[in-house]
Amino acid sequence: MTTMKIGEDTQAYAAASYSFSNNPEIVDSQLVPNRKFTEVPFGKKHIVSDGYGAKPRNIILTGTFHGTSKRTYYNDLAEHIYDNLVKKFFITSTKFYYFLGGNLKETLKGGRTNFIDYVANLWTPIPFAFSDTESTYTVAIANADELELNDATANSTGNFTNAGNAPSFVKWVIVNTSGNNITQIDIGNASTLAGSKQKIKWTDSTGLASGKTLTIYIYKFKEEDSGYKFMRYGYSEESSVEFGSVAITGDLPYVTKEATDQSFSIQLTGNSDASTITATYRAAYLG
């Protein structure tokens, strides 16, 4: 079996900073659809509300460290559990979950002085597994017109194809190469903005100037002025500083499960010369 690992959110499997000395003996992961059942008293039919979501997973790792370095192995794992950063748990060499540490329990048993038994809980803010391979779509845009994005779009490379069976969210990078400031960016998950059920609208009164780059992240676990960190979805940033405001309609635009060359749509208000769009995503899986 492939060695399971833990890495930072920017690390691939090969570069992951922590490798289990022995894989956990049990990895317990439960998929729970986020739907609500309302019972109608005395009824033969009942109410179901469903937004095609899933509850956060609580992945439970049960395992053992042994040998002269067992305490080092345990403390290295404890550091990742305690850290307040989103990390990756690589369940295989090609698939991982984003997680934050929940808790870690150790058990010392008489007669087993050479062993540390542990149970670790990993909380997943996005309850899907992701491919370790990132897919990329790029396109050059020379005007402010609404544009359909797919593999047939002029001046584009790549496509929006999701080999997995779960929705995959997209990170967007917009570079205003030259021309007027871009004051609004609209992105939808269908061939037209009007036909998109999931949309992002980014706005800024000054706009994204020529030579500047805007990144709209899937998420950012962001520390606020209070010192506390909060998960921010659709977070927009320029030069490592929050920039502009983002409104989300429905959800962040995503590549649907098992999609092949899905179309997206985009419009850059104010774009007068040349801009480059780069979209990155990963195949997503229910397990």
What does this structure look like?
The chain has 287 residues and is mainly β. The protein folds into 2 domains: 123 residues, Elongation Factor Tu (Ef-tu), domain 3 (Beta Barrel), CATH 2.40.30; 156 residues, Jelly Rolls (Sandwich), CATH 2.60.120. Helix content is 5%, strand content 52%. It has 1 helix and 25 strands. Strands 1, 2, 3, 6, 7, 8, 9, 10, 12, 14, 17, 20, 21 and 25 form a 14-stranded antiparallel beta sheet that branches. A 5-stranded antiparallel beta sheet has the order 11-24-15-16-22, with no helix packed on it. A hairpin with a 5-residue loop joins strand 18 and strand 19.
List keywords for this structure.
5-stranded antiparallel sheet, Elongation Factor Tu (Ef-tu), domain 3, 1 helix, 5% helix, 25 strands, Jelly Rolls, mainly beta
Give a brief description.
The protein has one helix at 70-82; strands at 5-8, 18-19, 26-28, 33-38, 47-54, 57-66, 87-90, 95-107, 115-124, 129-141, 147-149, 156-157, 168-169, 171-178, 182-188, 199-208, 213-216, 219-223, 229-233, 236-238, 241-242, 245-249, 254-255, 264-269, 274-285. The protein has 287 residues and is mainly beta. The mean pLDDT is 96.
